[in-house]
Amino acid sequence: MTAVLDPGAAAARATDAILGDTLRGTARGIVVDSPPGAGKSTLVVRAALELAAAGRPLMVVAQTNSQVDDLVVRLAEKAPDLPVGRLHSSDSDPYDKVLDGLDNVRKSAKAADLAGLDIVISTAAKWAHVKNVEPWGHAIVDEAYQMRSDALLAVAGLFERALFVGDPGQLDPFSIVGADQWAGLSYDPSASAVSTLLAHNPELPQHRLPVSWRLPASAAPLVSDAFYPFTPFRSGTDHGDRRMSFGVPSDGSGPDRVLDEAAESGWGLLELPARHTPRTDPEAVRAVALVVSRLLDRGGAATSERSPAPVPVTADRVAVGTAHRDQAAAVRAALTELGVTGVAVDTANRLQGREFDVTVILHPLSGRPDATAFHLETGRLCVLASRHRHACVVVCREGVADLLDEHPSTEPVQLGVTVKFPDGWEANHAVLAHLREHRVPWRP
Amino acid sequence: MSLITTLARLEAVDSGRAQPLATVRHRHLTDRPLVLVPLTTAGEAGAPLGALVGTDRAAPRLITVAQPRDRDLRFAFLAELAEAVLPHIESYADAGEPAERNETDPGTGKKVKVEVELCTDAAQLIVPSRAGIDFVRLLGRSMRFRRTVEDDPDTPYPAPARVPLLGRWLTHYGERARVPGSSLLLAATDLLNRHWATGQSSLEDQHLGALLAWIDPPEGEPGSAAALRAEAGRDRAGQLFCPPAGPATDPAFDNRLLAPAIERYDRARTALATAEDGLAADARLGELSGAEREIRSLLAGVLRPTWDAVWRGLDLLAELPEGARAEDRWTRDRWSFTGHRDRVRAGEPPQPRRDDAVTAAQKLASRETAQAQLEAQEALDDPLVLAGRRLAGEAFVGVVTDVEMAYSESKRPSPRPLVTVRTDERPHLGERTKVYRSLDGKPQTAEFVAYVPEESEGVLDGGSADEEILLVLRITDRMGRGKEPAPGSVPEPGDRFAWTLFEHDQRGGPKLPDPEDTPWTHGGPPGAAADGPAEKPDPVTAEDLL
């Protein structure tokens, strides 16, 4: 075997092994870890189609309604004639109207109406209310690392065997009340579904997707080293496969220079002077909005393996990521003032699983006087730093490195809890060290 | 910390006095709370040292352990504590009223109403601090698996008769205290911190004395100075003016006063044991009880200030009128109390050491529901709390300027009136965000449709700072079944309401499997493992024996 396998071949081999275990294996569960943009959704769709083709009734559990709708659409693209059931809630407007245009999809709020269909898809929350039905032979649990253990408990009775797919580096599920009392128990209800599953069934086969197709060659090594130190992955594209350029030259301002740096190297850090600020730091928020508006105004265009001709980077290919919802709201308001519309502005939690050409992020620790567990959470930074295909611009106040040094992790050690590596502190330092090489000081 | 809390803390620093965070009291207080001020022995986990307990502030009952490492004395303490606490609990357990409860009929799976008895009130337990709640939990854990002579005549160190029962009750209280908004077991510091913001850090707020110094400082003295004295002020003998609220004691007290006193007690006890004749024994018994009296008076001296502080805190809280929905949550506490009473009466075994997978998930789900409900109810009960939510963009107050009738597009069109609201607030509204208002105490739902563009400017989203904006909401429920909305169910121009982006009520979660149906992903049914469903008592270890 050659030392460096072609990324396509490496990914195909991993996929084949996963599908082999799923279709022909005997284990009750299979766990697949997938780094950002490694083709997790493609894998889910493929596994679903192959199980359906083998005549095995399948239920699919996703975490949010938009993930469910997205999967249904992808399935319909691949297999327009396959009967698929979309189980939905009884709220008003429970699913994406796009599904109404798909002939193969039957929609209902009652599981009984969907009995007999090859594939039935719903959210974990809806599945939890399904009772008194014949269990499915197979299930696919998507985003299993974002599913809470207690949510799995509520649905696990519905299937015999399951394929669990997810990204261990993203945000852990959380609870709005303290759950320390159960920390260390194998079935801690606030832990992720996968950690409970593996604690009780350590013999289950575990697979890993080795190639990120989303992250460019400039980002994959950093994200892999900082967030997946023991399970490295690489990018599917090489340096030079992706390029970004602007129609309008830089005017020399901070936002323009950081955009040029990011277009060149894949990363840019726009650093504002050190200062303690409220969460919705007006200067930082304005800087974020300016970067976005300049990116669009300067006519950014990207070439990639998908298309050799430059494709304009339009508003829908750009996202702004923040830690808090009020920050997102403030950025939205600032963008509106600059006349920018159509850019996705959201918190890390809501950007999970999404992909853009360029992302602009407000660093979670920017301007803070303290570094709390929330702001240090590894998954938060990982999500924010791994949504882009071309470039990522980080807006941050100076002094985060010192802040980190002043706030070592002080969370109590819980007996029986697997310590998560890397911790947020370490990961934050790794990312900062890399960003410092692409630093542009703020000059309005 | 929310913006309004930060503001309140800044104001507190500025004015030298704690600032209110609430205009009503958000926790139910009974007219006869049982206050318990416990102390523990330094370096000896779970070894009680003493306690003041009672419902009469003028006459607390002092219980002490002269030698905390002596298990007989410890049992005597626990037995006395049981005598002080259990009759109080039982006096509430015996008074019930008829009530109805929804239960699932095991045969048909249908919901049926069952006639049950609900305790008319529940015993409320107040401890000084959060550490006190942990200590109650620890005491419960250490007692509930003990065996009495009746349980097992051969048990090597039988516990006094009522000790395991007290352990079960304290465990229940400790567990209930984890439910947001519950009031069965409360810490005075938590109660005060909920209602006032001080000018010190939240860590410092755990000190009952310092907290009271901010909330109710002595005449003419700023809160910060009073708090500093409460925290660090010492008399000439080096003892704190304001001893810690426990259960931990001040090391200076331990070293200079308590340790020598216990040593004298130990010496007197050894001397008594070695007394050779009755006369000598009598004299030495006198010395022993003298030594014991000294320890009692030392402990009373450090317990009493905390005892008085707890009552002072309760007095301050009693001045606030109770929030309208606090009674509701107390009713749930009464159900919890009644449920535990019934389990004890039915002879069920003590609570297990660890929750099984299903119980843990159920508890977490119900606490999350309680938390969301508490946050909503506090905001609905209290304009000051609502103001904090408004400032955070989670609620807004606006005046209805226009109502336009519209109907849903379906075979039987139902009313979906469009209401234009004018506000100068900036709620975080997105496409079809649901908002709620209170209509006769029930939530009415509307969804956000659009901002109305200003005629002149054409600013759509947000707008700048304090300008008033117009937004359109579509009312979607609570208008009756007819084609025309029920009278009074649609807002009218000029009406001024608070709309919230959070739900007023919480839906319960899904039903989880029964513990015996725990799925393979969670280790299968519990009890298959070694010790079976009924828990065994704790084994006696070397540390248990002196």
Automatic annotation (TrEMBL), chain A:
Keywords: ATP-binding, Helicase, Hydrolase, Nucleotide-binding. InterPro entries: Coronavir_polyprotein_1ab (IPR050534), DNA2/NAM7-like_C (IPR041679), P-loop_NTPase (IPR027417). Residues 286-397 form the DNA2/NAM7 helicase-like C-terminal domain. This is DNA2/NAM7 helicase-like C-terminal domain-containing protein. It comes from Streptomyces clavifer.
UniProtKB/TrEMBL annotation, chain B:
Residues 480-546 are annotated as: Disordered. It comes from the Bacteria. This is Uncharacterized protein. It comes from Streptomyces clavifer.
